[in-house]
Write a sequence for this structure.
């Protein structure tokens, strides 16, 4: 997490303030200058929680979806059809993991874009008061557009590479 969280902070800042910073290096320098090393770790708890929940949901979901799809298709192990069921199960697992973890991603993104004094509780409360449960699912579609193809490739290739 030592590398992931600062990368998330830089990415979020670039997205939120493109007019202010042109490069990741510029964001890094600005955050270090204005907030110090601690500024790179804003949103560490929600980021770590989201990443752990992602793994804790995505892999079991993929396995469960693959079992169901395999039983429906009766594809021989290692066949093209089996590879397709792995990939499809990965896409479905991506939908499930995003549904479970998007609230943490939304809070993390908000934390990383606010001054250091903003607390997890304050951001969560404000988000709920301003938009209800829906507020926690802001950004779901762009995240799905990234996660689903990533899972398709990952879960299709892994069984093929594992054989070698």
């Amino acid at each position: 997490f030592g590398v992931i969280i600062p990368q998330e902070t830089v990415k979020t800042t670039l997205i939120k303030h493109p007019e202010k910073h042109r490069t990741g290096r510029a964001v890094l320098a600005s955050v270090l200058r204005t907030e110090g090393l601690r500024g790179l770790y804003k949103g560490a708890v929600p980021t770590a929680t989201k990443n752990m929940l992602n793994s804790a949901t995505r892999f079991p979901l993929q396995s469960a979806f693959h079992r169901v799809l395999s039983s429906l298709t009766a594809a021989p192990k290692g066949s093209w059809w089996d590879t397709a069921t792995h990939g499809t199960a990965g896409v479905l697992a991506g939908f499930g993991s995003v549904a479970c973890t998007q609230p943490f991603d939304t809070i993390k993104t908000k934390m990383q874009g606010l001054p250091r004094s903003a607390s997890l509780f304050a951001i969560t409360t404000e988000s709920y008061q301003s938009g209800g449960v829906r507020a926690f699912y802001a950004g779901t579609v762009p995240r799905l557009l990234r996660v689903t193809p990533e899972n398709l490739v990952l879960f299709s290739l892994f069984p093929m590479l594992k054989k070698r």
Observations:
- The chain has a mean pLDDT of 87.
